[in-house]
Amino acid sequence: MPTFSKVSHISFSARDAERSATWWRQVFGMKDLDQVRGDGWRAILLIHPATATIIEFQQHDANRGEVFDPARTGFDHMGFKVDDPAELDVWQRHFEEHGVTFTPVVHHDYGSVLTFKDPDGIQFEMFYRAGHP
Fold first, then answer.
1. Measured between alpha carbons, how far apart are the two ends of the chain, in Å?
2. 99-125 burial by CB neighbour count: b if 16+ within 10 A, else e?
3. How far apart are CA 14 and CA 122, in angstroms?
4. How confident is the model over 2-30, as pLDDT tens digits?
5. Among 13, 41, 65, 69, which residue's CB has the most CB atoms within a 10 Å radius?
6. For position 1, what pLDDT does the model report?
7. What is the 3-state secondary structure (H, E, C) of 60-72?
8. What SS3 class is residue 18?
9. Nearest 5°: CA angle at 113, between 110 and 119?
10. H or E stretch including 133?
11. Strands of 111-117's sheet, edge to edge?
């Protein structure tokens, strides 16, 4: 079976790529990596320097401006692992300070989760589970 070495990037369709990129710069300290254009779309790529996580925000000319809905077929959410459950409380305070829409930390049998949304309503989570790779 072929293999791959790591995730290269994740790309999201956004109503306003610059608005989304600005939010991620402010909330997560992401840095500009590249801007690209194609036929009917443009994109902004950001990188999180400490983890080399790359997120791309594509703005399609045909975008109808609808809000993200995790109940529809497609993307549900993306999780960011934290190494200590106390980090979830730190992130929660950070989200409060930046006006981020979030659900307070919840502890489940499978792990602890802090769910939040970006400006397009796309759902993300900070996640802790002991022994999680």
1. 22
2. ebebeebeeeeebbbbbbbbbbebbbb
3. 9
4. 566 667 789 999 999 999 999 999 999 99
5. 13
6. 73
7. ECCCCCCCCCCCC
8. helix
9. 145
10. none
11. 78-81, 123-128, 111-117, 101-108
